[in-house]
From TrEMBL:
This is Phenazine biosynthesis protein PhzF. It holds the Pfam family PhzC-PhzF. InterPro entries: Phenazine_PhzF-like (IPR003719). The active site is at E47. PANTHER family: BIOSYNTHESIS PROTEIN, PUTATIVE-RELATED (PTHR13774:SF39), PHENAZINE BIOSYNTHESIS PROTEIN (PTHR13774). GO terms for molecular function: isomerase activity. One of its GO terms (cellular component) is cytoplasm. It comes from Streptosporangium minutum. Gene3D superfamilies: Diaminopimelate Epimerase, Chain A, domain 1 (3.10.310.10). Keywords: Isomerase. Belongs to the PhzF family.
Length: 279
């Protein structure tokens, strides 16, 4: 593994000090699953993306994502980071990623003087969370039902991975995050959730979000593209909010990020856009 080139990009920002860092390995064709997991653990970011095969002519890439402790089916911020890294080398335009969650189309483009990418998720779905599971999760978070915004019923939403959607009743509640790491990880592992998407509505077009990610071995993710895609599908099911919205994440961690979300298709496919810069 000493010959593996590991790039480091931060996504959903144009400031190397902001956003969500991701490792990117553009040639992982010779790596085993165990070696990819070891690289991800060594890098230490919430996810590292590995391009295990590629066809530059058709711009089609097999991509896998590993957190420090496990493989995940899909990762939004690492997709944006990988897309920008590829576009810097083979040019802007449509990229197709074959992931464990399905085929993901990504459009890399120049916006002013910056390079950005827009991913289109797999079809989304969203269903109410079981009441006993909700109570168990709130206890692990140190929250109560009184802390929730009742305009947004708790759901489990999917856009490649499952994410629990919980709406905070105030910005102060969202800012005060101190949870039972092992307890929440146990619940999430049992339920198959990748993150818990905690959010607060500033307006119908602007939301603030935090994403505990204990099953990935980190306390919190500073920008979660997969959860943003699932969130877009969740809002569509509820018939709430705008078709075009901005999610602000990572502020409470000192890593401010901005994710642009739009509902792309009738089946709930969601577009998530952002920039990325090499660190």
């Amino acid at each position: 593994m000493n010959n593996v080139e590991i790039l480091r990009y931060t996504a959903f920002t144009h400031d190397p000090k902001g956003g969500n860092p991701a490792g990117v390995v553009l040639d992982a064709s010779g790596l085993s699953d165990a070696e990819m997991l070891a690289v991800a653990a060594e890098v230490g970011y919430s996810e590292t993306a590995f391009v295990t095969s590629r066809d530059d002519e058709s711009r089609t890439f097999r991509v896998r994502y590993f957190a420090p402790s496990a493989e995940v089916a899909f990762c939004g911020h690492a997709t944006i980071a990988t897309s920008v890294a590829l576009a810097e080398r083979i040019g802007v335009g449509r990229l197709t990623f074959d992931t464990n969650a399905g085929e993901i189309a990504v459009d890399a483009f120049i916006d002013g003087e910056t390079l950005r990418a827009t991913l289109t998720s797999v079809p989304t779905r969203s269903t109410p969370v079981a009441e006993p599971v909700l109570d168990e999760t709130l206890a692990a978070l140190g929250w109560s039902r009184d802390d929730l915004d009742r305009a947004f019923p708790p759901h489990v939403a999917f856009a490649g991975n499952d994410h629990l959607m919980l709406a905070a009743g105030s910005r102060e509640r969202l800012a005060d995050l101190d949870y039972d790491f092992d307890g929440l990880r146990s619940i999430m592992t049992r339920e198959g959730w990748t993150t818990v998407n905690l959010f607060w509505r500033e307006s119908d077009e602007r939301f603030h979000s935090r994403n505990p990610f204990p099953i990935g071995g980190v306390v919190e993710d500073p920008a979660t593209g997969a959860a943003a895609a699932a969130f877009g599908g969740y809002l569509r099911i509820l018939g709430t909010g705008s078709d075009e919205l901005t999610i602000i994440q990572g502020v409470d961690m000192g890593q401010p990020s901005e994710l642009k979300v739009s509902i792309a298709e009738a089946d709930g496919r969601t577009r998530v856009s952002g920039g990325a810069v090499e660190m």
